[in-house]
Model the fold of this input.
Amino acid sequence: MDLLERKAVLQDLTGHLQAAVSGPGRLALVRGEAGIGKTSVVRRLAQLADPRIRVLAGACDPLATPRPLGPLMDLAPRLGPAVRTALTGALAGTCRSDEVFDCLLADLSAYPSLLVLEDVHWADEATMDLLRHLARRLPTVPALVVATYRDDEVGRTHHLTALLGTLAGYSWVHRHDLAPLSRPAVARLATGHAVDVEQLYHVSAGNPFIVTEILASPAESIPATVREAVAGRLAGLSAAARTVVDVLAVLGHRVSPPLLAGVLPAPEEALEEAVACGIVRTDGQATEFRHELTRLAVLETVPAACRLRVHQQVLAAMRAGPVTADDLALLADHSEAAGDPTAVLEYAPAAAAHAAATGAHREAAAQYARALRHADRLPLDQQTSLLEGHAQACLLSSRLEEAVESRRTAVRLRRTAGDRLHEGEDLRRLSYSLWPAGRTAESGQTALDAVRVLEELGPNRELSWAYLNLCQLACYEHEAVAVTAAHAEKAIALGERFGDAGVVVQARFHAAAARMLSEGSGWEDCEQAVASAMAQDLPVDAASCALVMCWFAALRHDVDRTTAAVTRAEAHCLDHDLLFHLLCTRIWGSWGLLNQGLWTQAADAAQEVLSHPHSPPIVRALAFTVLGLARARQGKAQVWPLLEQAASLVDPDCLTATGLGWEARVEAAWLSGDHERVRAEARRGLDALAERSHPWLSGALACWIRRAGGTPPQVPAAEPYALELAGDWAGAAARWDTLGCPYDAALARLSGDGPALHQALAALEALGARPAVAHARAVMRARGVRPIRRGPRAATRANPYGLTNRELDVLKLLHEDLTDAEIAARLYITPKTAGHHVGAILNKLGVHTRHEAARKLHHSDRR
Done:
């Protein structure tokens, strides 16, 4: 398994080792909190060491009375007889410790060595002296000494602190900090697990041990191993320090000194002990647990009566002074835990509004939900306002079922109260939530109901948004460009009248997007609209437009534009905590990978989105479709269950709107050789497109009918499909090559001459497209094209993975950790071609990363 985000420190340590064994020697200090991966790093370093280097490893233990020279005792069997004799004498009291140290130095002088001393924060005094002795004299021996320690347990009074001060003056001593994993690394570890990656990252703070334990125990809120590790850290604390830790767990995240002092008198000394234990940390301004999961594990052990008392004390103390906006969430938490519903309704709605205003939409949803639990005490209009806030926060944080339920209730309450303006607004928002929930028919009808209600009231701001909603739905469902434009004009007119920049920029964007997909023009106008939304600080509007750019770029099979659009949208969504938009963006990104022929990566990306517990139905449907199509292209089983599951999640119109559903079903049928089903599925898709403008889908379906031996109908077709339907296979293939779609280019060349068929076959073999390869060979036989290779060439058969010679060349360069551009320069090919070869290699080897592929080469060479 890869050591995620540890490559740099491993490179540094490997460099130290290479330099040290040729002299002069060095000392490397590897530090980090418990569970950060220090042991994993030094073990990997030992594995990477030259076989001629002697590896010696010992460790200190958390004993009440540490073993004298414990690490040396561990590695004594691998040391020379002089060291063993001196060590035995020292332990018996017949020999001084410095004689042991001198013997060890002499032993290290005889062999190039890697000496690892783990967990020196638990070392006894003699081991500390050994480190002092070694460190001063290391330049005289061919050895690298690596000492690891937990910096979260080394306070100003710790006995290791003095040693570290001594080492500060030595130039041959090097320090390496192991940082927590980043969010992308945590997401990679979580691939295939049904977890909320953001929540996992939050509770673990990127600690590898905590991440892996949570993933290993998905049914447990707190894994037993984490609970036991926390209990072990707390076992040695005094009663006063344990009380401080318990109170901090109840108080929540960052706790200020005055707040802590308001609950516990004179907590300073006990707090210092708790910090030294490593379970909490302080910067002088606030104290907090190192990991949220650790806090929850401690909180679980605090008696209920104690928790209630502390919450009540804190609530009283905080209400006695000035309350800032940043205090609202904490006050709401303590209010509910203190059993004070009046205080909850005072602070939770305000905390929710503040969170929403600052872009913390998941926090806003949680605070609105908290307020709603006590909302029966409020007047009906206030209850409805809370429901509306909750629905919006749930939508943005991708909790669609909750969003739809709250919005439906709000519609009913507004209607009962006779509040037509807000009823129309809630209908419009309900329509907007229903579409990604896969209920396109209900979404469209609700959108019309919203407009009908609001038009009765005359021109108003809410009506501008209702017209925009019609414009968006017309764009997404690929109605005629003129229809989308007409809705956009109405929205823009009212948006400008009421000064609503969000309406204006989105209406212009969606009108341009409809043109872009249907007519091929409008991309620059869309880009300008996204930039305008971002410049005007309209984060949700910008996210909506940016993710549609990802979608439509993928629909158009434009690989470069898809990659750029996904990168931009993903960064924007992460910056503004827009989980719903982020998940949508990522599924379009997986489709972009599919277009590139990177099927393993596409499937992994789809699986990651699918594993998220809050993925919307339309996103889940697309993820199942990507998985099914990737399997179909690779000739794997269980394709149709995935495609049927996708279809079951959404209305049939969604299959048409997304542009992938029908085409995937048709292609899967073609790959399985079921031409009758190809024609039936394609005509069902074309029937669904009646009176719609979707040349990228209608053109694709017509091409599949032609490839299955049928007569395609006259339908709107995007350029590469139109060229193929007109018999210009060369033009179609060239266009696909320009777009960066090698698989589609190969399919177009199957209609070509002998050289084109050979080119198509080579490309399909490189991609690992087994069913399409079989079809290509059948076409060649039918046309009498010779020679036909019966299976892989000899060079391909000679390696265990079925790689071509060119792919083997690329794989060897992957072992050198080269980029696509660097590989291209070495092999005199284009970077895009290099990328296709890399994708084919990953598919054939059944691995996910370039590093895993390189390791397979390394292991194969060793065999």
